[in-house]
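[09:14] KT: can someone run the structure on this one? pasting the chain below
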Amino acid sequence: MPPVSEAAMPPVGEAAAGTVSSGNGCDPDESRCGRDWPGHTFLGRIDRRLRSELLGLGQIVRFTGGTIMIIEGDTDRDLFILLDGVCKVTGVTPHGAQALLAVRVGGDVVGELAAMDGEPRSATVTAGGAVTARRISAADTNLFLGNHPAVAAEMNRAVAAKLRWSTRRRVDYGDQVKIRLARVLVELAYLHGEAVDDGISIGVLTQPEVGALIGAGEPSAHKALAELRAAGILSTRYRRIVIHDLPTLGTVADGDR
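[09:31] RB: done, structure tokens below
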């Protein structure tokens, strides 16, 4: 997978830099415990009562854009439940370059593997803008999961979903760049898209980062985006892609156009 452009990567620093902690319990300023998250996310699939109990653990932390929340290879084990905002998950390729692996949004979890198996962090997680999260120790996480099998099942489901995403990206590498791009954009639209007047908006990612998600170089990604733009399927704006015709984009993703 090609690297993310260096300009898109944050400076290396302390994982906790740029954070502000607001203590235990629900944040009175955010009223997060009573809100709803998308049904495809970890929090969105948990029963309200259990979700309230889980979000009563640990403490609220806030990250400014570009702050590194988790560093690949570190041995800390805290779990982060994203309440609001967007994070980028990156890893180091065999050539030593940084590659964008995934995007996580409010309702998702990050850091669960280290919390559950005690192994070093498998990827770096960076705030893509202002992020609010619940930080829970590995001990509290595992105790809660042990006492609440339904939540443990949803945690396992979240891990499995991430594995499926990774597997699909590997399988996609055999297809044309435009097809791979269409498939990723369809998934991002359904998982993270925001309805706007002229379609569905996918924000935060730069065009080089979109290319990194599909394993394509920047020129190839730009060419594929240009073809989809020319067909009126989408438009590109600063750090944003707006999909105007999702059904047709799905047809391209199926390789039928």
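[09:33] KT: thanks! The two ends are 25 Å apart (CA to CA).
[09:34] RB: yep, looked fine to me
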